[in-house]
Design brief:
By secondary structure, the protein is α/β, with parallel strands linked by helices. 44% of the residues lie in helices and 18% in strands. A five-stranded parallel β-sheet has the order 3-2-1-4-5, with helices on both faces. Helix 1 links the parallel strand 1 and strand 2. The N and C termini lie far apart (36 Å).
C-alpha cells in the first residue's frame, strides 16, 4: 500500500516521526515522505540523518495554518497526523493554544485530506495523553 506512495507526516520531527520515518523508508520504499512541522531546528537536525535522500522532504508549517497545510498536501496519498500539544501541564496552562492545535488543527488536517483527495489519513494519540477530565 505505501510502496511508491507520497506520505505526509504532521508533527514529523517528534518522537513518533523519529521512529516512523526510518522504518517506513526501509520497509515500504515510499516515493516521498514529507516531514511537516513548525520547528525548523528539529527539521535541520533530522535532515542531517537523511543526507541527500530524495525521498525525504521537509516542509515548515503548522496544522493551524489551513492554507499552508493545503499546499503541503499537493500530490499526497497518505497522511499520518501526529502534530499535537501533548504535554498536559502545558495544555492546562495554555488551554486556547491547545484547542487551536489539537482541535482546530485536526479539523484542518481532515478538511485538507478530503479536499485534496488523500487516500487515507491516520490520526494518532500518544502515551502522553491523560484522563479525559483535563484539557
Amino acid at each position: 500500500m505505501l510502496q511508491g506512495s507520497t506520505i505526509l507526516l504532521t508533527g514529523g520531527t517528534g518522537s513518533f516521526g523519529s521512529r516512523f520515518v526510518p522504518m517506513t523508508l526501509e520497509r515500504y520504499k515510499p516515493k516521498r515522505i514529507i516531514i511537516y512541522s513548525r520547528d525548523e531546528m528539529k527539521q535541520w537536525e533530522m535532515a542531517k540523518q537523511y543526507g541527500d535522500n530524495p525521498a525525504v522532504r521537509f516542509f515548515i508549517g503548522d496544522v493551524r495554518d489551513r492554507e499552508r497545510l493545503y499546499r503541503a498536501m499537493d500530490g499526497v496519498d497518505y497522511v499520518v497526523h501526529a502534530a499535537a500539544t501533548k504535554i498536559v501541564p502545558t495544555a492546562e496552562y495554555n488551554p486556547f493554544e491547545c484547542v487551536k492545535t489539537n482541535i482546530n488543527g485536526a479539523m484542518n488536517v481532515i478538511d485538507a485530506c478530503i479536499d485534496k483527495g488523500v487516500k487515507r489519513c491516520v490520526a494518532l494519540s500518544t502515551d502522553k495523553a491523560s484522563s479525559p477530565v483535563n484539557l
